[in-house]
């Protein structure tokens, strides 16, 4: 060991000697080159090697940088002496980080490695497609040359895995939005995020318990299904279509799904996306273990002037939204389908697509076919089993807490009243300080609604939930978001 230090000291002495000679002999421009050359020689003899992990790799964010930061923050608070502390807006967790130029030592598989956080000021920008951060940040990993293969193969994978685990466990999950349109922030992200705090869970969701259990089982199977999807050659993704009247819990269901699986949510505002390539970029920037949501998909469809301009007979190339200007600034249905189904949909894994609509009959069947939307979930008006959940949630009431006569009346009227869980919640919240009053007022409201429905003829009288969807699938063009070109247009096409 002593010998080693002696030889290192003499090598450094030689380097210093050469440097002073260089300063005397060489002009300044050659000095830099010669120093680089000497440092190469030094590294050649050194038993260490170094890896730089920069925050931004070209134009993209370096996932490894983020992973290292999260991984180190999990134990840096115990080992480090000078730390940087951060807390995101609305976040409930404080994050520890290494300060500028500070080092920390870690061990993996009996091997010791050293991490250094390097922050340097970026030179003033002359021209850039997008503003870059003022600082250039990165980690330098220092390891012994002989440990290179262990560290590069196992340690970095371990860090990625560990950081994902930590992120899921400690960090608030995030709700992302693309409200900024397609523009990127200084770190190259098209999505903005806030901590996701929606309290809805499957316990609080009022719906038929069997249906609820079926959905929960399906989600669990999906989340645990890595090997199944791999074995069967399927992309590890799943699509759910939630449809039903307003206030029946579609958005609450999405929140419950995210809370159940511990996934982030990417809430895609389709009207902010200008064309297919922007849509693809947004998709590429979503992370694994996430739910990608398009709410009210029928309302994202802009039919203005579509008949005149869009003459394609192919339903999959019709315009979905945006202003048409020769095809460059529109999203086509095929673009949307590729988003959920095509090759690009497989960049990343373990992702769930959820579309919601109040009018399933307005959707193009291409969107509904299985493989795209694997499960169609009808969120219905409040049924008796769902009412029981609401009474438990808001009043703490079980069936046994209710008078048998009231119970019978509720059972009798609940379906006829066709009230949404949102309507019922309103009555219960308003009277929650007096439980008895809450129940009687709810019963009265239900009776009035049921009577009204009897008089006017309920829109649902002649069709069951499933029938509604079947009808929509059988004659999708009526009122569809993707109408057939009219006869005149068809003739024009044929003349060409
Ligand atoms: N099934 C349900 N279980 C529990 N609460 C519900 C349910 N449906 C609605 N609610 C209550 O009503 C409110 C509105 O529900 P939500 O936003 O989930 O409805 P939605 O179906 O998404 O409506 P829209 O079609 O207008 O988007 C929620 O805040 C929730 O408290
Ligand atoms: Mg909603």
UniProtKB/TrEMBL annotation:
Q: Which Pfam families match?
A: AAA, AAA_assoc, AAA_lid_At3g28540
Q: Which reaction does it catalyse?
A: ATP + H2O = ADP + phosphate + H(+)
Q: Which residues form the AAA+ ATPase domain?
A: 236-383
Compositional bias annotation for Basic and acidic residues: 468-477, 485-496
Q: Name one GO biological process term.
A: response to stress
Listed A to Z, the keywords are: ATP-binding, Hydrolase, Magnesium, Nucleotide-binding
Please identify the protein, giving its name as recorded: AAA+ ATPase domain-containing protein
What organism does the record attribute this protein to? Answer: Hibiscus syriacus (Rose of Sharon)
